[in-house]
Amino acid sequence: MNALLLLLGRAAGLGGLLLCIVAGAARLSGRYYMGNFQLTTLLQAGIAAVVIGCFFLLLALTAREKADRSARSRE
């Protein structure tokens, strides 16, 4: 479960970062649309993906701490 949360967090964060970079670079080149989407919409989607990735990584960290605490309490 922990490995899955780490993988999802890293994938969502990396995808969001790439989406933000693409949207920012296209906007700086003077474009307002990419396909049928406005670039600010793509930028917001990238930011949302980064936030979701952060939540997944936070869940992985807290699950690891809970497992460490339960292992220590058994000893």
Which tags fit this structure?
5% strand, mainly alpha
Q: Provide the domain count.
A: 1
For the largest beta-sheet, the strand count, sense and barrel status come to: 2 strands, antiparallel
Q: What general form does the structure show?
A: rod-shaped
Over the alpha carbons, how many angstroms does the gyration radius reach? 18 Å
User: What is the CA–CA distance across the termini?
Assistant: 24 Å
The portion of residues assigned to helices is over 70%
Spatial arrangement of strands, main beta sheet: 1-2
Query: Which percent range describes the beta-strand content?
Result: 5-15%
Counting DSSP H or I runs of 4 or more residues, the number of helices is 2
Average pLDDT score: 91
Q: Identify the quaternary structure here.
A: single chain
* Count of DSSP strands: 2
Contiguous low-pLDDT stretches (5 residues minimum) are none
- SS class: mainly alpha
What is the H/E order?
Answer: HEEH
Structure, explained:
By secondary structure, the protein is mainly alpha-helical. It has one domain. It has helices at about 1-30, 40-75; strands at about 35, 35-40. It has a two-stranded antiparallel ribbon with strand order 1-2. Helix 1 (about 1-30) packs antiparallel against helix 2. The mean pLDDT is about 90.
Short characterization:
With 75 residues, the protein is mostly helical. It has helices at 2-28, 39-74; strands spanning 33-34, 37-38. It has a two-stranded antiparallel ribbon with strand order 1-2.
